[in-house]
From TrEMBL, chain A:
It comes from the Eukaryota. It comes from Neomonachus schauinslandi (Hawaiian monk seal). Belongs to the TRAFAC class translation factor GTPase superfamily. Classic translation factor GTPase family. LepA subfamily. Signal peptide: none annotated. It is a peripheral membrane protein. GO terms for cellular component: mitochondrial inner membrane; mitochondrial matrix. PANTHER family: TRANSLATION FACTOR GUF1, MITOCHONDRIAL, TRANSLATION FACTOR GUF1-RELATED. The gene is GUF1. Residues 66-247 form the Tr-type G domain. Promotes mitochondrial protein synthesis. May act as a fidelity factor of the translation reaction, by catalyzing a one-codon backward translocation of tRNAs on improperly translocated ribosomes. Binds to mitochondrial ribosomes in a GTP-dependent manner. One of its GO terms (biological process) is translation. Pfam families: EFG_C (PF00679), GTP_EFTU (PF00009), GTP_EFTU_D2 (PF03144), LepA_C (PF06421). It catalyses: GTP + H2O = GDP + phosphate + H(+). This is Translation factor GUF1, mitochondrial isoform X1. The lineage of its organism: Eukaryota, Metazoa, Chordata, Craniata, Vertebrata.
UniProtKB/TrEMBL annotation, chain B:
It comes from the Eukaryota. InterPro entries: Aldolase_TIM (IPR013785), Coproporphyrinogen-III_oxidase (IPR034505), Elp3/MiaA/NifB-like_rSAM (IPR006638), HemN_C (IPR010723), HemW-like (IPR004559), rSAM (IPR007197), rSAM_sf (IPR058240). GO terms for molecular function: 4 iron, 4 sulfur cluster binding; coproporphyrinogen oxidase activity; metal ion binding. May be a heme chaperone, appears to bind heme. Homologous bacterial proteins do not have oxygen-independent coproporphyrinogen-III oxidase activity. Binds 1 [4Fe-4S] cluster. The cluster is coordinated with 3 cysteines and an exchangeable S-adenosyl-L-methionine. One of its GO terms (cellular component) is mitochondrion. NCBIfam families: hemN_rel. This is Radical S-adenosyl methionine domain-containing protein.
Length: 669, 442
């Protein structure tokens, strides 16, 4: 997330620019607008007083519902969503035209580095067309399937989307997934073919793909170059012409959807809202339909893309409100806000964030625990979808078990810890939430439910007490040049995937749909797919519930002693290969001892893999005379000191490193 | 080259006669002696070499010219100073190491021995060893060293394979080595030791055993087998690091060691220490002093010593290190009479740790009497009997604790460093439990 300072900097700059631009268009009464120099100076001051104290407030009642459009841009990674957003912001005077406008809406360092958008950003564009003032609300969506819930909530505030497709790469997996999200939400879809300036651009082919896969006539595609600014006006025209205004009523009581929230350390939670009905202004008493808590609105406004306070927000408009919420969990995405004493039916589709991938996180050195704890707290204050449970491992010490929406979410979280908080952590191999349907009456009574979710392998109930085990599955979409089809299918088969569909989207591109067990893709599936297709295949997935699975609990034994921290839940078909891999990794990292060590993977009493670490045959300094004694004693004492820190499994000494090597997420091979 | 002085010749001549007598008596006991604090061994460091060996990280220098007279005078001065400081009355062995001490003049050796005999008593039958390099020690020169008072030679033969010798950066060939060995045996019968290295990069078990067999056919009564330790900063280390040489295989080295020591046992050698083998009682008494934690003085650049500076009123044993660089060391000796750079007092616990770590390197290990000399209150039984981990080592047959004392078994000796990682913390624990104030011993 951005630090408060940089946030303030942007705030100051964008605000000034907007004020200038707005004044030009006659939206505001002529007022003294601060010079750029003054704005630069006020960067730090900006934080000191709330923007609510400013006098320049926009009267949003000027924008009628008929002249309002709410839309999102959806696209595959790197197809130019953020660049198009920048151009739209420039064209409408929302931000200055400078060379620095690189993905203004992507605020996170990782977002810019990886060309993905993690956190949804929103901007209100004021656009003059045919003598009418339009309010175009661009609701930027997270660009990854991990955040499909956030995407679906953002889309529920829209009436249409711009579906951006790269003129060179054509339709990719994420394009398909995004299209169907918009399609299911019954939104108008405007296909935009971007990067037509590229040498290898083939917009005609992409038009045909769009026609074939999405059933959209090819003459509806707008061909642009966001980089060069080509045809951007046509995009805005299409937004006005092809997307209907929201169907809302100002006269009804307030009904506002929370579609995002951020945390500001000075002002508390800033909730991004879309008004379905009614009006909201400062001083209103509002209630969260989910928590039933009451708040008083301190500030409302629009995003430009930074907060610009307004007098009110009206039905059909999109903006933010600050209402004394202390924690992002109080402004959950999908929640409905209404006025005190004027309850409304909550908007459909709300659910709490449901983590799908779990991983243990531990400081590399236990002395770092408190620093890491505060870094994790700071990060989760802005991301309520990460679940945090304290955990401790005999081998790795005190840490947490974190739940993430998906793999990328996990990776982004870890990167942000490293980049923004300079924290190095041990992240254990991700696991997925398995379920068990209990048959034992005693256990059902103990858990108070028949179906339990198993996050920690230690809780895995024995087969005799279970009707069946379930594992989460996803429906994966892969788009690949057809020369790689064979290899891709082999990879999917090896991951226990079942083919559901296969179609050619053009002469040489294939779209494959597979049902995958989630745990088969959490570790290195994406990297394998990329490497076997020279980077050309794309992959995306959506949640597909649970399926019955033959799961087993695998123990790791050292000379017959169970190693608690290495218990793994694994599918029966994968037990051998997983067991073998763990044994091999342990063999490479266990130091020799005075006796042989048998490393075994076992299911119940059956051994399925074994490796051996031979005993030390020779470990004694060759030369030890008068001049060597001091050095030798120092070395021995250091080693003896290190030995005290080793964990003992039976009489075997296991260094922390060995556990880390087995448990931590494996780097790409 | 100056000949040894008249007094020195006198000591050397007496020593010659004594040597024959001592030989007939066999290995000597050490009980009927002056108190331990008045006895010491003496190590003399000659820091110069002709050429740098690729495996050696010792304190040595390749000079353009050695001011031998100045060096000699400084060695003599430092020997006198340290003997005075220590209050040592009797020097029981002298070892000229290096570097390449066989590059020094026999007169320098004689001068040092003479000074020692003057300042303290150097009994005529004391063991006086010189490390000799095959190329720098032709017969005439060896004889001159003998005349100067040297009565034992340790030859750095290292290998009987010319390719390996080249790899090690040695200046001699296998032929040179065998010739030097033969000459040394004629001059110092029963008093010649040879070093053989094992575990070199790419070295195989069979051929190495062949070398050992050849050596058994022509060696004297003492042999040292040294596994190569790759030391940081040596050419060999760098080559292995860069991958231009294969890393030595520890499995093969272990096998060479096991097979080698078995072959030597067959041939009637006693493995009296981890790397040292002797028959007919030809143990090195000088090195034995190190393993028994006896006092020793170290003179010359970078030399180490361990003694109680009784002559200066001290009561605690100190670990002492002399200044490393020869030029600086010489300046200091000329100014202060010695070039001691560091003095580290050894606490009682530290001394016991050394007794343990060094003593277990020998075949007799630590006898109860030996331990009692250093620690009369806390017996070996007290320290080790109750430890579960020590019991496991005893049960595994790696360690023995009985009426004689504590020692390694044949198998245990090869993995002593692993055993010590249990024994040393156990000793510390027992010591802390025994001593009311753990402040002591720091």
């Amino acid at each position: 997330m951005w630090t408060p300072v940089s946030r303030g900097r942007w705030h100051g700059r964008a605000l000034t620019v907007w004020a200038t631009a707005a004044a030009h268009r006659g939206l505001l009464e002529p007022r003294r607008t601060p010079s750029r120099g003054a704005a630069a100076k006020s960067r730090t001051l900006d934080r000191l007083y709330s923007s609510a104290d400013r006098k320049e407030k926009i009267d949003m009642s000027r924008f009628s519902v008929e002249n309002t459009r709410n839309f999102s841009i959806i696209a595959h990674v790197d197809h130019g969503k953020s660049t198009l957003a920048d151009r739209l912001l420039e064209l409408t005077g929302t931000i200055d035209k400078t060379k620095n406008n690189k993905q203004v809406l992507d605020k996170l360092q990782v977002e810019r580095e990886r060309g993905i958008t993690v956190k949804a950003q929103t901007a209100s564009l004021f656009y003059n067309c045919d003598g009418k003032q339009y309010l175009l609300n661009l609701i930027d969506t997270p660009g990854h399937v991990d955040f499909s819930y956030e995407v679906s909530r953002s889309l529920s505030a829209c009436q249409g989307v711009l579906l951006v497709v790269d003129a060179n790469e054509g339709i990719q997996a994420q394009t398909v997934a995004n299209f169907f999200l918009a399609f299911e939400a019954q939104l108008s879809v405007i296909p935009v073919i971007n990067k037509i300036d590229l040498k290898n651009a083939d917009p005609a082919r992409v038009e045909k793909q769009i026609e074939k896969v999405f059933d959209i006539p090819s003459d509806e595609c707008i061909k642009i170059s966001a980089k060069l600014g080509t045809n951007i006006e046509r995009v805005l025209q299409a937004v006005i012409e092809r997307i209907p205004p929201p169907k809302v009523h100002r006269k009804n009581p307030l009904k506002a959807l929370v579609f995002d929230s951020t945390f500001d350390q000075y002002r508390g939670v800033i909730a991004n809202v879309a008004l379905f009905d009614g009006v909201v202004s400062k001083g209103d008493k509002i209630i969260s339909a989910y928590t039933k808590k009451t708040y008083e609105v301190n500030e409302v406004g629009v995003l430009n893309p930074n907060e610009q306070p307004t007098h009110k927000l009206y039905a059909g408009q999109v903006g933010y409100l600050i209402a004394g919420m202390k924690d992002v969990t109080e402004a959950q995405i999908g929640d409905t806000l209404y006025l005190h004493k004027q309850p409304v039916e909550p908007l459909p589709g709300f659910k709490s964030a449901k983590p799908m991938v779990f991983a243990g996180m531990y400081p590399i050195d236990q002395s770092e625990y408190n620093n890491l704890k505060s870094a994790v707290e700071k990060l989760t204050i802005n991301d309520s979808s990460v679940t945090v449970h304290r955990d401790s491992s005999l081998a790795l010490g005190a840490g947490w078990r974190l739940g993430f929406l998906g793999l990328l979410h996990m990776e982004v979280f870890n990167q942000r810890l490293e980049q923004e908080y300079n924290a190095s952590v041990i992240l254990t191999t991700p696991t997925v939430p398995y379920k068990a349907v209990l048959s034992s009456a005693k256990l059902i009574k103990e858990y108070r439910e028949k179906e339990i979710t198993i996050i920690n392998p230690a809780q895995f109930p024995d087969k005799s007490k279970v009707t069946e085990y379930l594992e989460p599955v996803i429906l994966g979409t892969i788009i690949t040049p057809d020369e790689y089809t064979g290899k891709v299918m082999m990879l999917c088969q090896a991951r226990r995937a079942v083919q559901k569909n296969m179609m050619y989207i053009d002469q040489n591109r294939v779209m494959l749909k597979y049902l995958f067990p989630l745990n088969e893709i959490v570790v290195d599936f994406y990297d394998s797919l990329k490497s076997l297709s020279s980077g050309y295949a794309s992959f995306d997935y959506e949640d597909a519930g649970y399926q019955t699975a033959e799961l087993v609990k695998m123990d790791i034994l050292l000379n017959g002693n169970h190693v608690e921290e290495l218990v793994t839940i694994v599918h029966k078909d994968k037990a051998h290969s997983v067991g073998k891999a763990i044994c091999e990794r342990l063999k490479d990292s266990l130091p020799r001892q005075l006796f042989e060590i048998a490393i075994q993977a076992a299911i119940g009493s059956k051994i399925i893999a074994r490796e051996t670490v031979k005993a030390y045959r020779k470990n004694v300094l060759a030369k030890c005379y008068g001049g060597d004694i001091t050095r030798k004693m120092k070395l021995l004492k250091r080693q003896a000191e290190g030995k005290k820190k080793l964990r003992k499994i039976g009489n075997i000494e296991v260094p922390k490193d060995a556990f880390i090597k087995v448990l931590r997420t494996q780097p790409d091979k | 080259m100056a000949l040894p002085g008249a007094r020195a010749r006198g000591w050397a001549a007496a020593a010659k006669i004594a040597q024959r007598r001592r030989h007939a008596e066999g290995a000597r006991g050490s009980s009927s002696r002056a108190p331990p604090s008045s006895r010491a061994a003496l190590y003399v460091h000659w820091p110069y070499c002709e050429k740098r060996c690729s495996y050696c990280n010792f304190n040595k220098y390749i000079p353009r010219g050695v001011e031998e007279a100045a060096m000699r005078s400084c060695l003599v001065t430092e020997a006198q100073t340290l003997l005075r400081l220590s209050g040592v009355r009797r020097v029981e062995s002298v070892f000229f190491g290096g570097g390449t001490p066989s590059l020094a003049s026999p007169s320098t050796v004689a001068a040092v021995l003479e000074a020692v005999d003057q300042a303290a008593h150097l009994p005529a039958d004391s063991e006086v060893t010189l490390e000799a390099n095959p190329t720098s020690a032709p017969r005439a020169r060896l004889a001159a060293f003998g005349a100067a008072g040297v009565n034992r030679l340790s030859i750095g033969l290292q290998s009987l394979d010319d390719t390996e010798l080249q790899l090690l950066g040695r200046t001699h060939s296998a032929r040179d080595a065998l010739q030097t060995l033969a000459e040394a045996r004629r001059l110092f019968p029963g008093r010649v030791s040879v070093d053989l290295m094992l575990g070199l990069p790419a070295q195989q078990v069979g051929p190495w055993l062949g070398q050992l067999r050849t050596l058994l056919g022509c060696c004297d009564d003492h042999l040292s087998l040294y596994q190569l330790t790759l030391e940081r900063g040596t050419a060999l280390f760098t080559q292995v690091q860069w991958g231009t040489l294969p890393a030595p295989d520890p499995e093969l080295a272990a096998e060479m060691y096991q097979e080698g020591r078995a072959m030597l046992r067959e041939a009637g050698f006693r493995q009296y220490e981890v790397s040292n083998f002797a028959r007919n009682g030809a143990l090195s008494t000088h090195n034995w002093t190190y393993w028994q934690c006896g006092q020793y003085l170290g003179i010359g650049p970078g030399a180490h010593g361990r003694f109680v500076p009784q002559g200066a009123g001290g009561h605690t044993r100190e670990a002492r290190i002399q200044t490393l660089e020869p030029d600086n060391w010489m300046k200091e000796v000329m100014l202060f009479g010695h070039g001691t750079r560091r003095r580290i007092p050894l606490g009682q616990l530290e001394l016991l740790e050394e007794v343990l770590a060094m003593g277990l390197r020998t075949d007799v290990g630590i006898t109860h009497q030996h331990w009692q000399q250093f620690e009369p209150q806390l017996s070996l039984w007290d320290v080790f009997r109750s430890s579960r981990e020590v019991k496991a080592q005893l049960a595994q047959g790696l360690l023995l604790l009985d009426h004689r004392g504590l020692r390694c078994s044949w198998e245990g000796l090869a993995v002593l460093d692993s055993l010590l990682l249990t024994l040393l913390p156990r000793l510390q624990e027992a010591w802390q439990q025994r001593t009311p104030s753990p402040v002591q011993g720091g």
